[in-house]
Amino acid sequence: MSLQTFVFENDEWVERTISADELMRDNSSSARKTGRPPLSSPPTCGVLTRTIVDSPVIRWVLPVQLRSARYNDVALIGDHSIQICELGRDRQLHNVIKKNDFGSRIRNAVVMGSPQYSRKASESTEDGTRVKDEDGDTDTIDLGTTVPGFRDVNSQLPPQLLILVLEQGDLVFLFLQQGHARSWVWVSSTHTVPGHRLVCPGFHMAIDPSSNFLTLGCSENLFIMYQLESMEGLKEQYFLKRPLTPIKDQIARSVKGIIHKIEFLHPTHGNEAQVILMVIIVQPEVSKLAVYEWDSRLEMRDFFRKEVPGYRLDTDYRLPLMVVPLKVRNAFLIITERITATCSDILAGPPVFMEFELANREDTDLHHGTREPLWTAWTRPIRHPPYHDRKDVIYLAREDGFINFLECGDESEIETSVSMGSVDCNIDTAFASLFHLFGDVLVTGGDSGPGAVWNVEARQSPQRIGSIPNWSPTVDLALTNDLANGPFEEHYANFGDMSVFPLRPDKVFTCSGRGITGTITELRHGIQARIGLEIMYSSIIRQCWAISDFDGTVEDGFFLLLALPNGSAVLHLHGDLSEPSEREHDTIPYDLTSTTLAAQEANDTIVQVTTNYITVVTPDSYSQNLTSEVVKDHTVTVAHAAIREHKIALAVYSGLQFKVVLLSIDGLEVSVQHIFDVDGEVTCLTIETYAFNTVVIAGLRQGGESTLAIYPGESEQPISAAPIFIQLQPYARITGSDIAEIADNDDFGALTSIVLVATDPGIGIIMAGTRSGEVLTIKNHTSQSGKYEVWRDRFGMSPSHVYPGRVARKPNSVLVCCDTELAILTGAGEEMHRILPTDGDTPSMSCPPINSITPLYEQIPEHGETTLAIISGSRILITELQRERKPVPRYFPLGGTPVKIIYSSKLEALVTVVSRDGLPSLHFIDPTTGHDLSQPLERKKVGGESYNYSGVDYITGLGNPETRAIALTTWTYRHGGVVADWIVLAMRKRDKEGLLLIISAGLEKVPTESGVARRIRFWTKFDRKIRDGPLWSVATDESGVFLCIGTHVQYHVIEQGRFTVVRQHEIPSPASWMQVVNGRLHVFTTRHSLIVLDYKNDLVPEGEQMVRLHTDDTCRNSLHSIEVGGAKNAITMLSDPMCGVHGLWAPSEDERPLKLVFQAELQASVRRFARGYTRVSNGSFKNRPRFGSIQSGPVGSDILGLTIDGSLQHFSLLNEDAWRFLRFIQNLALMSAKVCPHSPMLNVVASDWNDHLDPEPKSEPKLKMHVDGDILQRCLDRRVLEELMADPQHMKRFRELLDPLDDDGLLQDSRETESPDFAHITLAYQILEYYLAPVL
Fold it and tell me: Is 1051 in contact with 1042 (CB distance < 8 Å)?
């Protein structure tokens, strides 16, 4: 048998006869004659996401006593977290504890129980007045267990519990217990809401005034009534150590229609057993008011066996905005868009509404929209119980910040309606009144702009006394670098250069807020230092010390001893930090003629060392001696000094010879104890207790190298005792004279300061600053002579100085001052956090330049242990450090709504589009000062090639109320010998037309009284009207501009001064985002995912279609994207409006579909991705690819994503080994009540273990390739890996998955030890610390 066919031979087709044997032989050959390479395959990788800045949105503000009656606490509840704050004596909110491990959105919240507040300031809380609180709200905890060993402290249940409903269907009861070291621990009890077919159970939630009944309303057709255990019964269960069972009984009641409102009304005075439930049900064209009444002492089920028909509501009242139960006459307020009315005696028959007018209904400047502003929230101020027997008072809040005060009586309707004026923030559902002895404290919050704390005194308007950060909604993101908008292929140019790191981290800016509260917000994360007092001095201050005033009492105040460039000064401050005054030299015993080098107060003795004198002061007397006389050498000069208790160490020199002199203090006498000759220069020194002995630790500079010298300091030690010298080498782990590991041979500068961090048995950890901007960590093995390890972290270019970290209450920590910034380094250099001074009156204040610091907790203990004096040039800032890291935003007010933002590296300015009163305008903002640098100009041609420029309010194309900004980007134009940097702004007009603006901008220096200021002049260079359809998105390359007009993508180039279309392509749906990647256009459509187009194909004539290379075979909605992964296996990470993130890989072969590599689900949709160096400098270096991390950009850079609710997400790519290991830990954590107390996996029965509880990672579906870094963070913080691996099978698999990630050979070194599991656990924690290191 043979076949006749054609084959291509010698450049032509010829006819040949092929036998069956030849055909079969060719098909079975292992190597095809065509030599066709195999098709490329997608990489196997996962994605790790974590929240680095939580959403600031607050949905509810609920006064609640979850700890005990001693605390005046409030719960700030967001969509996924709860922050408990305490209202302090200063009427400020102080953070107590946060809970964000729900794993599900919080749908609703109420408070169970009544608060107990003291009637007088001197009255104990146990005798306090019980005050009922109707508008309870939520918090989350674990009620089933108590903290071991703390039953004596936690012997009583707190007055109130917080009840939450989660979207996953859990009803959670929460309170707080005292934990170790004055910490607080959440306690929770979870009850599953029955029925998976219910429509949004908990959409409505209410608790009756006695806290005996709780109702959950679905959005339609059904509500569930729970009978709760009384607080007395729960307290008894808790005291007897029984499991808490808050729910006694429950019953479901179906209704016909949509449940619009459901509330409990207050019982008739004196009839506390009465329970009244009111339900407003909406049916087609009619609304009904149903009322259920029963006696709480009787069986609840009997009253819900049949549906109550209800009363028909008039059209004006059928859809109320709010229903407010009143404490008198079983009444309630009903508030609609246009009507406010009361309804009383509801049990007597059909409802009768009495309308009343609210004072002053004028709109405020905070109102958004064309219709009247709506009433959004209410709160009841706390009054003593007798007051509520006959009256009730309510604060009503409107969305534009207007507040009205109402007083209702038991005999009449509204007795008082008073306008309280407006507050300068929008108010949503977050509104509450807190208890205070001397007036009401209101807490307000909204969904646009910061919230606030207000003090309301009798017959006075609210006065702002504090702020609550809120930068939502956020619509755009910009980083102060060039990585986000540059061509993707350039990102990898310096991958191999490990020295390419920014000297300062990139700043993160967002478009935040709406209307007059609109701002550009700089997202910062660190430890806040609240400035309470600022003192200006007439000279630059080098350093200061706080010392006592022996002539007065503690209440009279204390002294600040200032070191000046050419002398010293003493300031006196009162105990309340008021009235600072400078003391004259003849009124104090200190030396003010020379610069102070060191000062100390200990054991009622103050010692001052200046460059000339040593002064010792006691409450009864003082002595002052010339240093040259003490050391008996009149030629010496004192360079450095240190004091510790009764010892003084001096670094002195005479000619070129340095010496270290150790002095002893006995009463007022100072004498020489030891003198050590030094070979080289002494650059700094300190006195510490090291290995149970007092020693002098000095930094030496010898022959261009730095050495750490440890001199004996005990008087009983012989003077001939040999000092210890540690030769410092960069990036080195040194054992004796052998260098085990060196990453760089560059030397570092001389030491500037030294702090002994820890002295564990056999090990001493010393940290030192250097003149080259680094911090050294020296780990010396005292038990093994000559064995030590040295690490260094770079902080900046200027000298770095270290200070003891006791003021921050962090173990093994130092404070670091470098490049005029302050940070805290904890864990012997393992973790670093910025310290950010803030002034509540100046939210746009940048961090002041910091020279030095000194603690004040010994002089003013009533202000807390974390009080710190920060020296900034000639200013002294008295600050209070906060306990934990948190977002510390900085706001640049704009007076309008910012809609787009980019950063221009050429102009070193933020470029933003702002809508003021509906008129769009362009602004250039200085990212350091927040000043507006804009000078808009109009360009007119005056003949030939000349142009005239004149100042205008809006450049050409802007200032039109019918247009709105769609896209803003930069255009680096390089074509035809023309080199230019332009700004491209795309506008949409009437949803049918578009406008393209090409804007030129230049920097101009403007002389001012204070120096030279910057100003940016800009004008419209090209403007093109688009009439083919609406503009959707814009992208650029060096030669042209890509426009998405309707469902067409067009490529425009400039020819003879005019735009010409040279390429175009039709797409199935409009493009929400476009980007040029490696010479190809990536088009992200609103409904059809990613389309990759070739617009440079020379085979296609001009004006023809672009070539479609790749499409997605799955329809996905697109918001934004960023290119990640290596240059050879680049992955496009795409976000969608449904909170999803998708990793798409494009094959190297054309016309093949895109492949999904991974998928993730977040808590909110990512509006913008960005890439940059946001870590501190040492963090960027440590962010090298390790432990299976896939490099996704320049070395040290990170990928961030901004969500609409203001949270900031971080993304890391994982290779298969890293994904399997981290996902294995996550799967086990989901089954741990300690890590995920509200995980649905905890409800899975043991029989379903194989199907549902198998921790082995699965690669399908691709959603399983997602690793939740927030869960891993809890595993790291709570150190639970040992507990998760308690099962031997889990530990075995854990070791198998961990072995491929042992980059440093830690496991190999430990295989001969007796406990290899310890090495595996240690390595696992190192990997978690690497992936979860701070990014901001």
Answer: yes
Amino acid type, 207: I
Cβ–Cβ < 8 Å for 647, 600 = no
Burial 981-1000 (b: 16+ CB within 10 A, else e): bbbbbbbbbeeebbbbbbbb
Q: What is the 3-state secondary structure (H, E, C) of 991-1022?
A: CCEEEEEEEEEEEEEEEECCEEEEEEEEEEEE
Question: Phi and psi at residue 298, in whole multiples of 5°?
Answer: -100, 175
Check residue 1244 and give its pLDDT.
62
Phi and psi dihedrals of 283, rounded to 5?
Answer: -120, 170
- Token pair of 1200 as six digits: 């961030």
- Residue 305: per-residue pLDDT: 84
Query: In terms of residues, how long is the chain?
Result: 1336
* Neighbour tally for 1243: CB within 10 Å: 12
CB 445 within 8 A of CB 428: yes
Please, what is the angle between helix 1216-1229 and helix 1269-1278, to 10°? 70
Only one residue has tokens 């020199």, namely: 653
Q: Per-residue pLDDT tens for 739-780?
A: 333 344 456 789 999 999 876 667 788 999 999 888 888 888
Q: Which residues pair with 295 in a beta bridge?
A: 274
Q: Mean pLDDT throughout 1039-1067?
A: 92
Give the model's confidence band at 1245: pLDDT under 50 very low, under 70 low, under 90 confident, else very high: very low
How far is Cα 246 from Cα 229, in angstroms, rounded to an integer? 5
Strand, helix or coil at 126? Answer: helix
For residue 1135 the two structure tokens come to: 């976000």
Residues in CB range of 485: below 8 A, 6 or more apart: 902, 969, 970
Amino acid at 612: N
Gap between the Cα atoms of 457 and 454, Å rounded? 10
For the beta carbon of residue 311, count every other beta carbon within 10 angstroms: 14
In this structure, the number of other CB atoms found within 10 A of the CB of residue 1310 comes to: 18
pTM score of the predicted model: 0.89
Residues contacting residue 32 through CB under 8 Å, at least 6 positions apart: none
What gap in Å lies between CA 688 and CA 97, rounded to an integer? 36
Both structure tokens of 490: 């350039």
* Helices 1316-1331 & 1216-1229 angle (0-180, nearest 10): 100
CA dist 1044 and 1055 (Å) reads: 20
Q: Which residues contact 237 (CB under 8 A, 6 or more apart)?
A: 229, 243, 244, 245
The rounded radius of gyration (Å) of the Cα atoms in the chain is 35
Residue 124 has pLDDT above 60, yes or no: no
Query: In angstroms, what CA-CA distances link 871 with 47, 753, 851, 868?
Result: 44, 17, 5, 10
Residue 758 neighbours by CB distance under 10 Å: 14
Q: DSSP secondary structure string, 295-363?
A: ETTS-GGGGGSS----EEPPGGGSS-SEEEE-SSTT-EEEE-SS-EEEE--GGGSS--EEE-PPS--PP
Residue in 661, 769, 655, 666 with CA at minimum distance from that of residue 708: 769
Asked if 1293 and 1285 count as a contact pair (C-beta separation under 8 A), the reply is no
Residue 1059, classified by CB atoms within 10 Å of its CB into exposed (0-12), middle (13-18) or buried (19+), is middle
pLDDT tens-digit map of 504-552:
789 999 999 888 889 999 999 999 999 989 999 999 999 999 999 888 7
Q: Which residue has the tokens 């570092």?
A: 748
Is residue 322 a contact partner of residue 262, using CB atoms and an 8 Å limit? no
Q: Give the least confident one: 302-306, 956-960, 1245-1249, 1276-1280.
A: 1245-1249
Residues 6+ apart with CB under 8 A from 978: none
**In 3-state terms, what secondary structure has residue 1059?**
strand
